[in-house]
Please model this.
Amino acid sequence: MNIEQLYKDIAPRLTNWLVASGSGYHEACDLVQNTFLKIWKMRDDLRGDASAVSGLAFTIARNLRKNLVRDNARLSFVGEIRDPDENASGDDSGEAGDSAFMQAEISDDGAPGPAASDSEYLRRRLTEAFSRLPPVLREAYTLFQVGGRSIREIAMDTGVSENLVKVRIFRAKGKLREILSDLRVT
Model:
């Protein structure tokens, strides 16, 4: 079994699924690396079937993400860390390291201000919409749409029936359609 080839085949889908599930991109990359490290350690015990390894990778990544979320819940994060050399007004005079996303102005109603791009606005709206989905609906939908998993594979991974997976995907689509209804072009 060629772990490198499996990584090239599975890692992009797994990363996309983790990001769609709520992980940041860099966190998702770390989770994918840790997932394949576990797979590499158990490489002698694995069958040669790539689809079985794909299911194992998604299961390991899901469990690693759950562990990370649980561990992070115990930590307290500081909202903002300021550089002591920064002037008192908090204006950093537009340093080159600032990203456009950090400078984007979003009004109270969620509409983008003059500095925000459409893609940033849509990304934020999609992230908010996904976070409002119940976890079981979000997991089924992202495994199917982003992870490229089949209904049968999702059912086996999550331990529920195929019909329940279909219902969860259908409900997730409906809920997302409802939450993002103001974005529809008529």
About this structure: The radius of gyration is 20 Å. The first helix runs from residue 3 to 20. Residues 118-179 form a domain with the Arc Repressor Mutant, subunit A fold (CATH 1.10.10.10). The chain has two domains: 3-73, 118-179.
